[in-house]
Amino acid sequence: MQEFLIATLTLVTIAFVCGSLLGFASVKFKVEGNPIVDQINDILPQTQCGQCGHPGCKPYAEAIAAGEAINRCPPGGEAGIKALAELLDMEVVELDESCGEESLPRVAVIREDECIGCTKCIQACPVDAIVGAAKLMHTVIASECTGCDLCVPPCPVDCIDMPIIETTSQDWRWPDPKTVSDPQVIPVKVVT
Amino acid sequence: MTDLPIIEKAKGHFHGGVHPQEFKSISNQAEISALPSPSNLVIPLQQHIGNASQPIVNVGETVEKGQLIASCTSGLGANIHAPVSGIVKSIGPHHTGHPSGLPTAAIELETNDQQNLNSEYLPRLNHWREETSDNLRNCIKNAGIVGLGGATFPTEAKLKTANIKTLIVNAMECEPYITCDDRLLREHPEQVIEGSQIAAKIVNATEIIFAIEDNKPEAISSLEKAIRLIREAQKSTIDSSGEPKNSSAGTEPSLRIVIAPTKYPSGGEKQTIELVTGKQVPKDQLPASLGLLVQNVATLHSIYNAVVNQKPLTERLVTITGDLVNKPGNYWIPFGTKLTHLIETFEVDRKKISAAILGGPMMGQSISNFDTPVTKSTNCIIFNRTQSNEKSWVIETKPHQACIRCSECQQACPVDLLPQQLYWFSESKQWEPLEKQGLFDCIECGACAYVCPSEIPLVHYYRFGKSEIRKNKANQEKAEKAKQRFEFREMRLARAKEERAMKHKKAAEERKKAANNQQEDPSGKQAAINRALERVKQKKAGLAQSQTTQDSGEANE
Amino acid sequence: MKLSSPFFHHSLPTNKVMLLVILALIPGAAIQFYFFGYGVLINLILCSIFAVTAEYFVLYLRNRAPQEVLKDNSALLTGILLGLAIPTTLPIWMTFIGTWFAIIFAKQLYGGLGLNPFNPAMVGYVLLLISFPVEMTAWMPSRDLTANQPSLVQSLELVLFSQTSSGLTVNDFRTLADGYTMATPLDHVKTEHVLGKMSSEIFSKELFQANQNGWMWVNFGYLIGGIYLLFNKVIRWQIPVSLLASIFVTSGVLNLFDEELFSSSWFHLTSGATMLGAFFIATDPVSAATTPKGRLIYGASIGFLVVIIRTFGGYPEAIAFAVLLLNLATPTIDHYTKPTIYGHSKDQQDQDDDKQNGTAANE
């Protein structure tokens, strides 16, 4: 009986000491990190397009943190899903087609002579990238536009285009060497 | 001072490096000469690091040779002058030899008959020894001079750095085929020296060191002769004027030549510095932190032309070489001259060539669109047969073999990186570790790819990695901005909603209050209104009555 | 046309590197053939065929254009190295298992050439050694000892059927005229030491000396080949030099400590696969350390382990174990021996590394 007590007491003591050490360490050496919602939000592309069914990226981040699927963000695309899967330690899944397709970055352009100045697009823009006043022509601040498409449906005269942003020599990127190791596919335009 | 030896051996050495076959004798035999002007030129608006220049001429305008046609308006940039007299044919996108093959903005000129350099486009100066540093620097800025070694950094900005003790003249010219600096030093050493003295005066440097590889003995001896003459001249003035040696030595920077063993890439700025001083430029710092300024031979020659001859930078010495070139050599070629013009002039067989190399074979660029013009960065153009001869001229792209981690690339890397690791991370697109391996310390010299037994296009992998990382950073910044704007909008909407709600609440409260008031205080405002309303009612009723009686009376009549 | 510079290229292509290594093996292999008979030749041919077919098979399954990839000669080299490492009369099915395991599991399953963390030939060798310890240590005595070397036909029969048509087994050939079964010198010394015999006693035996003589010449052959590789810059000096120096020093110190219990440096350097290991196996670039300093540490550690395992371990030969153990340590060695990048200060770079590790650990 005494041995049993000694053993129990020893184990309890060890458990207590180790427990308090761990407890102390978890307080003292606490890893300061973003709350998970912020970390998810940092991965999302911030187009605020709402294709995921949420009114913006932050709400979707909150939804993911609450357990929603990570494949509902077309602008983030495959890379975004991969990053989210890595962060949340989940399986990489294919993009949910019902939300839309991944496309190249776009920018909204208002055909200004057709604009009637209804301000509907201004109200729809999630990042305040359209300027203008009632009955006056509106225009898009291209550098602030996220290409979310949200201004297109409200326009009563359909004067907003969403062209793909064209690569210029300034933002041209070197192609993946693996894709050009085949001599046929070198993307150098030969115009003669 | 005059007793110091003119020629010294390099003190330092740099890690790695390779010894590619030189091919320099193809082009360094003939004397420098000029070419007849082409009839059509395309002058890109961006020939330098920094912002693109803004055109200040209009289509159809006649410009004279040397006239300013595009100027740098803000920030880092450089002026561009008309290389020939002629008419502005168009201003717009044109193929200018960007690696992407995408067109960039350029001015197209059609040559006319009057060709004479009008020096009035640069302000006249006193003799440079009597001028202030600021005026000299302005002159260099106006002349549109940029680093002609290939980096094309605006020289005026580089000359602004303070606390410079030593000006190193980079005459290494370590790339195979290129000989323009070599020829320039052989034929005009005194002009290059004068250019270097002007630069030294601007930054108050006390010594000028010519750093040169030992494979250019003729250039070294002509430089040595020129320096000896200058030293003798200084000595004689000192002797004749009888002044103490020190005062004169204090005003004139000393001149020396440092000879480095031939090894690629000794001409890289950081490698040159390590060779000459034995020191490394600390990470993220400029050579100025060691009191050093490095300038290329051709740049100094253009400074000489601008300050002494009031000539803006409109042409440069270009090595035209390769086994398809008739009369290879070094030529003064106006900027904007198209490769097609050179192909005609040098009788290059177009059937045998699918691309030319602009710059050297190690760091240059392959151009298959021959409409590409010569720019400020073009120091060499190679027209070689496209098929590979032996092992030294591999130009086709083919699937490479697997990396066997032999680390030959590591042995060759002049910045002591681990190229095999860079390749590993770039190939597998692991951008974060790639950056931590020191990707942005890579100078893209190509020594690693040169020695790779598996013929992996390593530099391409680094460039791919660099541009992807830059893109990701830009995207992140954009997303961050969008996030902030979105959050601000949410806040604004929330605030507006709240304000509206407040307003409604206030109004509702007031109404309520008024209703209450009415109950409590019948003699109040509301009561008065009610009484007034009543009065109106009564009056209306009375009016209606009298009217009906009137009506009936009328009917009775 | 290449898109990116450099447009110049000059080096020995990878497939030629492999070919040169194979060429450099010839002197050692020839001497081995001279001393140990036709079995060497049979092994080389069998292993080469097995290795190449295994590679072809997997590449075919992986849809990787086998003809193109096989041109890099790396599978052939793996086969040849394994063929030289196994005893001359090993049954064919064991050779087959070892080679296929080496190519498929140690190389192709990791992604093929350049991606395998372990030396494939040594993985195959160790698999065989652990699975079939008796057969894998059944080396023929060297030619000077026995007039009874198996002929070409007998060797083939031994390999194919484990006995000759006249009913002789491997052990019959290994048994000398006086009924003594000869083991390799390393094996012999180990056994005798375990039995409590003194070095002076073991080494003085004529039979032993004659046998050791054969192994010494084999090692000499590989040394010649290794020096040829060094001069052609196919391999760099760091690994072989540090490895041999480390063997020399470690065994020398032990030998000084007690001459009778520990064999001399000379014995260690000229026995077993020392030279083959130093110049051909440890230098396999794929699985070895890649930084210059790292290679010194890598080689020296292998040398140290070789002597320790040979002296205190359960197996007589230790090159394979030592190489595989250090293959495990390679990423760590490489991480801590990174050269200082131009313009970086050593301390700063280390700090950055630590930070990187810290964040990695936190994640």
UniProtKB/TrEMBL annotation, chain A:
Coiled-coil spans in chain: none
InterPro entries with a match to the protein in the record: 4Fe-4S_dom, 4Fe4S_Fe-S-bd, 4Fe4S_Fe_S_CS, Elect_transpt_cplx_RnfB/RsxB, RnfB/RsxB_Proteobac, RnfB_subfamily
Domain 4Fe-4S ferredoxin-type as annotated: residue spans: 106-135, 136-165
Residue numbers binding [4Fe-4S] cluster 1: 49, 52, 57, 73
Co-factor: note: Binds 3 [4Fe-4S] clusters.
Superkingdom of origin: Bacteria
Principal EC category: translocase
Any single GO BP term: electron transport chain
Binding site for [4Fe-4S] cluster 3: 125, 145, 148, 151
Keyword Cell inner membrane among record annotations: yes
Pfam families, A to Z: Fer4_21, FeS
Domain 4Fe-4S as annotated: residue spans: 32-90
The protein's role, per its UniProt record: Part of a membrane-bound complex that couples electron transfer with translocation of ions across the membrane.
Protein name as annotated: Ion-translocating oxidoreductase complex subunit B
The protein's Enzyme Commission number: 7.-.-.-
Lineage of origin: Bacteria, Pseudomonadati, Pseudomonadota, Gammaproteobacteria, Oceanospirillales
GO CC, one annotated term: plasma membrane
GO molecular function terms listed in the Swiss-Prot or TrEMBL record: 4 iron, 4 sulfur cluster binding; electron transfer activity; metal ion binding
Primary gene name: rsxB
PANTHER family per UniProt: ION-TRANSLOCATING OXIDOREDUCTASE COMPLEX SUBUNIT B (PTHR42859:SF3), OXIDOREDUCTASE (PTHR42859)
Keyword annotations of the record: 4Fe-4S, Cell inner membrane, Cell membrane, Electron transport, Iron, Iron-sulfur, Membrane, Metal-binding, Repeat, Translocase, Transport
Cofactor or coenzyme needed: [4Fe-4S] cluster
Subcellular compartments: Cell inner membrane
PROSITE patterns per record: 4FE4S (PS51656), 4FE4S_FER_1 (PS00198), 4FE4S_FER_2 (PS51379)
Binding sites annotated in the UniProt record for [4Fe-4S] cluster 2: 115, 118, 121, 155
HAMAP family: RsxB_RnfB (MF_00463)
Organism the protein comes from: Aliikangiella coralliicola
Main location class: membrane
Family listed: Belongs to the 4Fe4S bacterial-type ferredoxin family. RnfB subfamily.
TrEMBL record, chain B:
Organism for this UniProt entry: Aliikangiella coralliicola
Cofactor: [4Fe-4S] cluster
Gene Ontology process terms (BP): electron transport chain
GO cellular component, as recorded: plasma membrane
Cofactor remark from the record: Binds 2 [4Fe-4S] clusters per subunit.
Protein name per the record: Ion-translocating oxidoreductase complex subunit C
PANTHER family for the chain: ION-TRANSLOCATING OXIDOREDUCTASE COMPLEX SUBUNIT C
Positions that bind [4Fe-4S] cluster 1: 403, 406, 409, 452
Automatic annotation (TrEMBL), chain C:
Keywords: Cell inner membrane, Cell membrane, Electron transport, Flavoprotein, FMN, Membrane, Phosphoprotein, Translocase, Transmembrane, Transmembrane helix, Transport
Any Pfam family: NQR2_RnfD_RnfE
Primary location: membrane
InterPro entries cross-referenced by the UniProt entry: NqrB/RnfD (IPR004338), RnfD_bac (IPR011303)
Membrane topology: Multi-pass membrane protein
Biological-process GO terms, alphabetical: electron transport chain; transmembrane transport
A GO cellular-component term linked to this record: plasma membrane
Record-annotated membrane-spanning stretches: 17-35, 41-61, 73-106, 118-139, 214-231, 237-257, 264-282, 302-328
EC number from the UniProt entry: 7.-.-.-
Enzyme class: translocase
Domain of life where this protein originates: Bacteria
Cellular compartment(s): Cell inner membrane
Names of the cofactor(s): FMN
FMN phosphoryl threonine PTM positions: 184
Oligomeric form and interacting partners: The complex is composed of six subunits: RnfA, RnfB, RnfC, RnfD, RnfE and RnfG.
Family of the protein in this entry: Belongs to the NqrB/RnfD family.
Free-text function comment from the UniProt entry: Part of a membrane-bound complex that couples electron transfer with translocation of ions across the membrane.
Protein's name in the database: Ion-translocating oxidoreductase complex subunit D
Protein species of origin: Aliikangiella coralliicola
